[in-house]
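Let us begin with a simple case.
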Amino acid sequence: MARSVIKDIDACIDCNVDMVHVFIPTSDVQREYTIKKTREEALNSAVEMVEYIKGHGFKCMFSPMDATRTDFDYLTEIIKAVKNAGCDIVNIPDTVGIFTPLDAYDLVARLKDAVDMKYDMHCHNDFGLANANSITAVEAGADQVQVTVNGIGERAGNASLAEVVMALSAIRGFKTNIKTEYLTETSKMVEKYSGVKMPPMLPVCGENAFSHESGIHSQGVLAKADI
């Protein structure tokens, strides 16, 4: 992953990576206050960086950072521009985690209609919706979603590998290349080495995930006895 800066991209190229993922802020608030560029300047910079990556023979992913707060017309304009520059896939980041599942579905569907492109979705979990947003993005036509083991990520984390994969495959019938038999083992390994403890109620990989009780609580029994 690289900022829209030549030295960042060169560092990726020097590592002989499989793909360079370059990003630039596109929402007005991020663009104006972090990189201090106009819309035109940001678009030109994005195109220049994509052309530089493709010129060196590498696969390229482009992210319009803070896409979910970016004006839709400008978002499609910059996606069309990087597509023409040779970009292989566009990532749509919900950078501050403000989307709901309906928002995610709507945006991906509209983008697919507006610009024929491979799309990837990157969701943050600030409101606990990263998994749901990732799932509905796939339902709307996204080709990929970005996930992390145990949902570990900045602030409230990101979409969770195990939960998204199992929901897509077991509930919705999508095929993935994930070897699901290793999900729990991988979760435990990352928990051990990261030091980030997972609650027993963690879906799919948590200790309580497949336990079952009758649902009759002791308070209800006592209340009945008191009548």
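The second case is a distinct protein. As before, the sequence precedes its structure tokens.
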Amino acid sequence: MLPAARLQAAIELLDEIVAAAREGGAAADTLIQRYFKIRRYAGSKDRRAVRDLVYRAIRRHGEAPASGRAAMIGLAAEDPELLPLFDGSAHGPAPTGEEEEGAPATVLPAWLKARFASAVDDTDIASLSGRAPLDIRVNLSRTTREDVLAAIPEAEAGTLCASSVRLPEGSRIEDHALWRDGLVDIQDEGSQLLIDAADPQAGSTIVDLCAGAGGKTLALWDRTGGKARIIACDTDRSRLSRLRPRAERSGFTDIETCLLNPRKEREALGDLEGAADLVFVDAPCTGTGTWRRNPEARWRLSEKRIASFVATQQHILAFAAPLVAPGGVLVYAVCTLLAAEGEDQIADFLKTRSDFRKVEGRNIGSVASGQGYVLTPARHGTDGFFFARLERSC
């Protein structure tokens, strides 16, 4: 493909991605894969170049542009090498008109800015549109970070968490013996930090209430050296089924699983009421803290979508709280920086549950936000998170 044809392909893909965001369709990565599946003439360099153009445009536009062409003209205004490619060639985009304007650069939809937590500033918000690094979690019960760094000399030790290692851009850890032998797992340092804040203890009963595929479940097991009872719960059978092979690769055993029936969770968890020393709630959320990984998600957000997640989080907290034993801890975490899902959610919870109070976690350098804390890419180099550590009175 000639450079002009690559640009036109990016424009066509952006049109599809914008439409999908408005209509609740497939994610950008899925659309890109589909696009090239039926265009086998495009080589690996072509696919990489087109993908790079697409994501440069997506990251530049926090609000969905009117069209893929408007997005690329806007990008071309900042990149002199792109404008000549609007040349009207056979497979390239038509020349730009004298009065044709590109979409302006924006960080996020204007209506959304006021929704962020009080501790989050403009620099924090801007950092959400950057590129995310690739972090791995060292299974400290099986090896040391020093040994992992010796095996990957180009990697760097994480700055916030003793189990974290940051890999160079473009690394494929899945091809490394460390991965095949289950000595490391992929996990953002912020997620690892949440496990440190939870401070899981050997000999305790731990419920991971929204376990998904089990990334944090495995971290909880590793932190306790497998010497705790850990129950991983989720309402999604497919996601929960991925935990077992991940645990087997890591050499982690005796993790219990519990498939929950939506809206009937308390029935399945009845035996655990008042018995858990730690209940970890990594609740479903809008994911604003992961925009570096899913930048077009900014285009999908709406007041209705936020309200739906807030209601789900309230429901989960309502059946999570009774599981906590007297003197036990409830950790609530979301990968979002919106106040409604973080500080406001916990403030409302504490109004209805006077038997819980905020307790300080381990000193991990997070920023106070209401009765909890936030992590941001700008300040911590992690995904964006809100978390709170709440203790139930004896």
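The chain has a mean pLDDT of 94. The longest helix spans residues 3-23.
Keep these points in mind for the review questions at the end of the chapter.
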